[in-house]
TrEMBL record:
Lineage, opening ranks: Bacteria, Bacillati, Bacillota, Bacilli, Bacillales
Coiled coil spans: none
Positions of the PTS EIIC type-1 domain: 102-459
Species this chain originates from: Sporolactobacillus putidus
Active site residues according to the UniProt entry: 25 (phosphocysteine intermediate)
GO molecular function: kinase activity; protein-N(PI)-phosphohistidine-sugar phosphotransferase activity; protein-phosphocysteine-trehalose phosphotransferase system transporter activity
Mode of membrane association: Multi-pass membrane protein
Cellular component terms per the entry's GO annotation: plasma membrane
Location within or outside the cell: Cell membrane
Pfam families the UniProt entry points to: PTS_EIIA_1, PTS_EIIB, PTS_EIIC
Protein name (database record): PTS beta-glucoside transporter subunit EIIBCA
Transmembrane region(s): 100-121, 141-162, 169-190, 202-228, 240-264, 284-303, 323-343, 355-375, 382-410, 422-445
Keyword terms, alphabetized: Cell membrane, Kinase, Membrane, Phosphotransferase system, Sugar transport, Transferase, Transmembrane, Transmembrane helix, Transport
Chief localisation class: membrane
């Protein structure tokens, strides 16, 4: 069995013990080494998959290209290199609200597939039990129940792990901290009295709580743990860190979490959930109309991440939730608007895209393709989706419909809603779908509103495509130069693909093509887009700007989002980055150049963003 690229690189740079720190940016591994003489540089440079080697500013850089995240993950597997301060943690930029949503998204995103899969399995178990196919006293029932609900019982440990990755703390120490609070040794303190029993830690009173299925305590605790680790590593001699950092972390953080973060998180989470559920209980019709109508707008701005933990908490503690059905109402309102667009349009390409977006909602409960590719693009379908979601959401909320698992609303997740209110859920979804479709067809839309209006785009659209071709716009205003003018040799030599370099005159990056965001680096200094024609384009703002850890950068899109040509992607503080001493020249690379017969730079010199400056051709 051949050795993987990551392991080859690890061995050729002298192994784990020769690496002080390792991170990666959008294109390369960045290492500081203890002894550069141990590196087998000649072999590295001739290793398949490695584009070039750069030694600069005390860093040893291995240039790989867009595949660098998977190589990095492979390299650090079975090592201690990805833990603590050596991880690729970062500081997000933007206002406080943006940072909060970005943090919550980063913590919960890795768990969403598990939550969705567990939710469907739980729904099937409930369905089979209710129709008599499965006895609730059988071993099969109990095993499947354990399989479908274990994610919620051990949720604090799973969240500790993902939170540690987000904040750069030791993954395993973090998991152990929250694991201590759900051990029988801890829960036995409460006996049969439940939450609120007072115990003492070296004389200090601690209110004991049940932490299984909780959300907020783990996030707060590991956030604090990340700072404690950095402090300890700064003040404990390096040779002693292996023992004393975990020891001190466990000794301090378990009682601090039990005494402070735990009760605060439990009571806060319960309070928020109680308020929202009180609104639904008081007037489900109005609450359902508001949530069903506005949820798709929440998704556009990423606000849904603030509510998801509440739904998960309800499922975990109550066994059901009334907000999840309302988010499904929004999904089917969007599905109806997408169908309405399909029926209304005469454009074959639009019909094809809307059908794929509709299937994404039906089979996966994923609305982003429809939201960004249809609703936002054509404007009025978004209004139709809001009307549909509000109409059906009012019915679903008014009938106090329940979900018994945290899932995304689609046809495949129907079992998660099986119960006494299931029929109301199905009727509500039908209302959302039909009303959304009819409203969109009545409102209509201007298909030209989704296209870039500048004269260059019109010229491109009017050109008949006799061969596959992709026109690429300048993503930022400024001076366009050949790629060879880049100050970074890894870009200048073209090893990562053909392209050009821009010296920006402002701090706004726009989409050079219509497509999907395939890569958005956490520090927001680099973004990759795959166009509808399959062209893969990477925009790297500045040279070595990853070192700013996201400072001066703000993203206006998320990874996986669909974007339209000319849409604002990223803003950055041009002057501040220059003052910090960084070269702000911005390479724009076609990373799959090898798939094309020719990639031509059409224009150089001063150009405005949106001007077509490059063409990729393939027979």
């Amino acid at each position: 069995m051949s050795e993987s690229l990551g392991k080859k690189i690890l061995n050729l740079v002298g192994g784990e013990n020769n690496i002080n720190t390792i991170t990666h940016c959008a294109t390369r591994l960045r290492m500081t080494l203890k002894d550069n003489n141990k590196v087998k540089k000649n072999i590295l440079e001739n290793t398949s998959g490695i584009l070039s080697i750069v030694e600069k500013g005390g860093q040893f850089q291995v240039v790989i290209g867009p595949n660098v995240p998977s190589v990095y993950d492979d390299l650090i597997t079975e090592t201690h290199l990805g833990e603590g301060s050596n991880s690729t943690s970062y500081k997000s930029n933007g206002n406080i609200l943006t940072k909060v949503f970005d943090t919550i998204a980063g913590i919960f995103t890795p768990l969403l597939p598990l939550l969705a899969g567990s939710g469907v399995l739980r729904g099937l178990v409930l369905l089979f039990t209710q129709v008599g196919w499965l006895s609730d006293t059988s071993g099969t029932y109990h095993i499947l129940t354990a399989a479908s609900t274990s994610v919620f019982y051990f949720l604090p440990i799973l969240l500790a792990f993902t939170t540690a990755k987000k904040f750069g703390a030791n993954l395993y120490v973090s998991a152990a901290i929250m694991g201590a609070l759900i051990m029988p040794e801890f829960t036995n303190i409460m006996g049969s009295h439940g939450n609120g029993v007072i115990t003492h830690f070296f004389g200090l009173p601690i209110v004991t709580m049940t932490y299984t299925s909780t959300v907020i305590p783990a996030i707060l605790a590991i956030w604090c743990q990340s700072y404690l680790e950095k402090f300890l590593k700064k003040h404990i001699y390096e040779n002693l860190q292996l023992l004393f950092v975990p020891l001190t972390s466990l000794f301090l953080m378990v009682p601090v979490t039990a005494g402070l973060f735990g009760p605060f998180g439990v009571y806060t989470g319960e309070g928020i959930a109680n308020v929202i559920n009180w609104l639904i209980q008081s007037n489900g019709w109005i609450a359902g109309m508001l949530i069903g109508g506005v949820w798709n707008v929440f998704v556009i701005f990423g606000l849904q991440w603030a509510v998801n933990p509440i739904m998960i908490t309800d499922i975990s503690t109550l066994g059901f939730d009334k907000i999840v059905p309302l988010t499904a109402a929004a999904n089917f309102g969007m599905a109806g608007a997408t169908l309405g667009t399909f029926l209304k349009t005469k454009n074959k390409k639009t019909k094809s895209y809307t059908m794929s977006a509709l299937l994404s909602i039906f089979f996966a409960g994923i609305t982003e393709p429809a939201i960004y590719g249809v609703a936002v693009r054509y404007k009025r379908p978004l209004i139709g989706a809001i009307i549909g979601g509000a109409a059906g959401g009012a019915f679903i909320g008014g009938m106090q419909t329940k979900a018994f698992a945290f899932v995304f609303g689609g046809l495949t997740t129907l079992p998660a809603f099986v119960g006494s209110t299931f029929v109301y859920y199905v009727i509500g979804l039908a209302i959302c779908f039909v009303v959304g479709a009819i409203a969109t067809m009545i409102l209509g839309f201007d298909e030209n509103s989704g296209e870039t209006a500048d004269k260059n785009a019109k010229m491109v659209e009017s050109t008949p495509l006799t061969i596959k071709q992709q026109f690429i716009d300048a993503p930022v205003s400024g001076k366009i130069s050949k790629l060879s003018a880049s100050s970074d040799p890894a870009f200048a030599d073209g090893s990562m693909g053909s392209g050009f370099v821009v010296s920006p005159s402002d701090g706004n990056i726009y989409a050079p093509v219509s497509g999907v965001v395939k890569m958005l680096f956490p520090t927001h200094h680099a973004i990759g887009i795959q166009s509808d024609n399959g062209t893969e384009i990477m925009i790297h703002i500045g040279i070595n700007t990853m070192e700013l850890n996201g400072k001066y950068f703000e993203s206006h899109v998320t990874q996986g989002a669909r974007v339209q040509k000319g849409q604002l992607l990223i803003t950055f503080d041009l002057d501040s980055i220059k003052k910090a001493g960084y070269d702000i020249s911005t390479p724009v690379i076609v990373t799959n150049t090898q798939d094309y017969k020719d990639v031509q730079l059409l224009k150089t010199g001063i150009q405005s963003h949106g001007t077509t400056v490059m063409e990729a051709l393939i027979e």
